[in-house]
Amino acid sequence: MEKLIITAAISGAEVTKEHNPNVPYTVEEVGREAESAYKAGASIIHLHVRNDDGTPTQDKARFKACMDEIKKRCPDVIIQPSTGGAVGMSDEERLQPTELGPEMATLDCGTVNFGGDEIFINTENTIKNFGRILMERGVKPEIEVFDKGMIDYAIKFQKQGFIKKPMHFDFVLGVQISASARDLAFMVDSIPEGSTWTVAGMGRHQIPMAMIGMAMGGNVRVGFEDNVYISKGVLAKSNGELVEKVVRIAAELGREIATPDEAREILGLK
Ligand code: KMH
Ligand code: ZN
């Protein structure tokens, strides 16, 4: 099996210090959390940023400050800014970090129910426009899919020239589609040959989905964005602690951990 790429989604936009006091807001805290994940074995940092009061922002200068801090502490890590931002942000706002020349950024391939009255809107035109801009800026999309239909959108937009092959998918399970082995297998079966994939299980599904994904030969995303607990009722001390848990399970499964450069090779970033 290929080496295992671990993505750490260290901050998210919705989770707060009320959920876990270790959720990073300041530039220093973002650097600390990225470093803990990197040292534990993460090769990709999926990044949302906040103002110091915790409100989510896609501000380019704030992203630059956080990315510089991460690069200082984890010189070779792959930084993957979010273009999803937070529910309600405009497309222009969301796209700002892609102006900083990151190696990767997310491309959300459909509209999602985000709980209560929240809707994370990605119209066809938004997806195509984001796909085109990422391509023009030389940024590899991490195609976030919250449902099987979003895979079909990605395939359609790839055929129309808005996304390049080979595609890299992130299956987000437990927001819209259920976090189950059956649905993960369905997603894996639905992507084009030659694609790579990662699984991100929400909340208590994070580690079980990671285990199934690793056994299937896929890659894994963990971190505070999706889950703040290290075990039932126990808050994780850091994103690094979540990565360490995955690394321990990977060892039992015989999956070696990819360095950032090995991840670049696998993902076709170089
Ligand atoms: N915070 C969500 C509204 C992404 O990073 O691209 C969007 C999100 C997906 O988290
Ligand atoms: Zn995100």
Q: What would your notes on this structure say?
A:
By secondary structure, the chain is of the alpha/beta class. The protein is globular. The mean pLDDT is 98. Helix 1 (27-40) links the parallel strand 1 (6-9) and strand 2 (44-47). The chain is built from nine helices and 14 strands. The two termini are 21 Å apart. It has one domain (6-267): Aldolase class I (TIM Barrel), CATH 3.20.20. Helix 1 packs across helix 2 (60-73) and helix 7 runs parallel beside helix 8. It has an eight-stranded parallel beta sheet with strand order 5-2-1-12-11-10-9-6, with helices on both faces. The site of zinc ion has 7 residues, from loops.
Provide a compact summary of the structure.
The protein is α/β, with parallel strands linked by helices and 270 residues long. The chain is 37% helix and 19% strand. The radius of gyration is 17 Å and the shape is globular.
How do the helices and strands line up, and which of them pair or pack?
Elements: E1 6-9, H1 27-40, E2 44-47, E3 49-50, E4 56-57, H2 60-73, E5 78-81, H3 91-95, E6 104-108, E7 112-113, E8 119-120, H4 124-136, E9 140-145, H5 148-159, E10 168-173, H6 181-190, E11 196-201, H7 206-215, E12 219-222, E13 229-231, E14 234-235, H8 239-253, H9 260-267
Bound molecules: (5S)-5-amino-3-OXO-hexanoic acid and zinc ion.
Strand content bin = 15-25%
Biggest sheet features: 8 strands, parallel
**What is the correct CATH architecture?**
Alpha-Beta Barrel
As laid out across the biggest beta sheet, the strand order is 5-2-1-12-11-10-9-6
Give the beta-strand count.
14
Mean pLDDT: 98
Number of helical stretches of at least 4 residues: 9
Based on Cα principal axes, name the global outline: globular
Tell me which oligomeric state these chains represent: single chain
CATH topology: TIM Barrel
- Radius of gyration over alpha carbons? 17 Å
Q: Hetero groups bound?
A: (5S)-5-amino-3-OXO-hexanoic acid, zinc ion
User: How far is the first residue's CA from the last residue's CA?
Assistant: 21 Å
Q: What's the CATH C level?
A: Alpha Beta
Order of helices and strands: EHEEEHEHEEEHEHEHEHEEEHH
Looking at CATH, the homologous superfamily is Aldolase class I
Give the class from helix and strand content and strand pairing: alpha/beta
Binned, the helix content reads 25-40%
Integer tally of domains: 1
Low-confidence stretches: none
